[in-house]
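Lab notebook page, bench 4
Experiment: in silico fold of construct C2
Operator: M.H.
Input chain length: 230 residues
Purpose: comparison with the prior construct
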Amino acid sequence: MKVEILEFIEGARKANGVAVIIDVFRAFSVGCYAYDSGAVRIIATAEVDEALALKQKYSNSVLVGERNEKIIEGFDFGNSPTEIIKTDLHGKTVIHTTTAGTQGLINAVNAEIVITGSFVNTGAVVKYIKAISPEHVSLVAMGYRATVSAQEDLLCAELIYSSLFDKDYSYEEKISSLKNTSGRRFFDPDNIKFSPPTDFFLCTMVNKFNFILRAETRYDGNIDLRKIDI
């Protein structure tokens, strides 16, 4: 099995075989928490206008997303797991758009299989990949706003990489240190309304969930994120 680490939207476009689109802070952590909160479907889309249009098609739905980290005008929730865990989403369709993560899903057009990656279900991702034993795996770290390398996404990619080859990888201290680097924005008092400290801790709970989210392209070009228990 060949495994490579790529970055950003360009990396998503280059990905082949099994593509793991990684967005730890916060898109694909939010996706896992949304299913855990009772959501029955997640539709990922790249554009705000498309999300609003989908809302009109699905009556029992909620809009979740961000631009520049903040909740989008007219949306029900921001891209915050803290908001999601406080909400009963049973029976709801979640329509999700973000600056980085959902863009990666839309652009992974050359991969045979596309799944999401985050710390909260890293173990499930590894088990799934090992079970299907692909020839090629592309780990795509989407980065901050899909333009700047994000330590948390690269760290998640490295953890998946090491685990696929059964190599020991000490990640606890590295994850903790994110509080002082790429995760310090969650501890800025000016950001507490849209990026609270609890988001940091919810996004860094390694192996909290034993399921993956697999992307399936819809007839309209958007993405259904299917929950698959491992």
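Observations: The mean pLDDT is 97. Residues 2-229 form a domain with the putative 2-phosphosulfolactate phosphatase fold (CATH 3.90.1560.10).
Next step: discuss at group meeting.
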